[in-house]
Each structure stands twice: as structure tokens, then as C-alpha cells.
């Protein structure tokens, strides 16, 4: 097996203070992966940062709000064929963070979608493959916010 990865990413399923899912309507430009689809907030790992450090940085960059590392709960890992880039390899860590206040968010990439949990299954065809995996993992595990 080739040990070099095509992509190394960290992304998070964000849940607002009302229990709604916060997703990113990706820009519809050809040079990005899955243009126009609905995805998670997150992105590519840089240098020697951990996946947790990556998700904290990427979320802060994309929603203009810092969510501390301890607020992210691990959702699942992916290390294999890249479901979004045929022939590629993806190594990714996916997280969930709760109680994200939407009133202070400034989205710097794409557009914010606030989705009721019950409505997310109806939009499966609009989700990127990794977002669908994250939603399914979240729904099957029913991860709850700490202290609730």
C-alpha cells in the first residue's frame, strides 16, 4: 500500500443551540471538490498539526468563531479510497460540536445551511459523500452533548 495520502482532512458536523445541523452549501466553482454540494465545515490538514488542531483551525476560518478543542467529540475516522476523488486516497477525522450560536457566525466559504435534524435525510442526494457518512454516523450513534 502506498503510504502517501492524496488528502488528509478534518471536518465537523456542527449543531446549533437549538439542535439544528449547520452545514455548508459549497461554492459552485470547478476547482473545488464536490462543487455546489452540501458539506461539512472543515478542510485540509497543514504541516504537523493534529486532526483536532486542524478542525479547530478550519472551523474558526470558515465560520469566524473559535470553538475550543475540548468541545469537539470524535465521530469517526476514514482511511481508504477517497469517496469524493475517484482513484485517490483519503485520511480523515470527523467530529461533532454542539451548542454553536448561529447569531455570531460569519461564513467565509460557501453559504450556511441550517437544517432541522429530521429534514437532513430528505437532502441526501445534495450531500457530499463524506457528509453523508458523517450524518449517518451521527444518527446511528446519537452522540449527545456533554453534560446533557
UniProtKB/TrEMBL annotation:
Domain Nudix hydrolase: 4-148
Chain segments annotated as transmembrane: none
Xref: PROSITE patterns: NUDIX (PS51462)
InterPro entries: NUDIX_hydrolase-like_dom_sf (IPR015797), NUDIX_hydrolase_dom (IPR000086)
GO molecular function, one term: catalytic activity
Domain of life: Bacteria
The name this protein goes by in its record: Nudix hydrolase domain-containing protein
Species name: Nitrobacter vulgaris
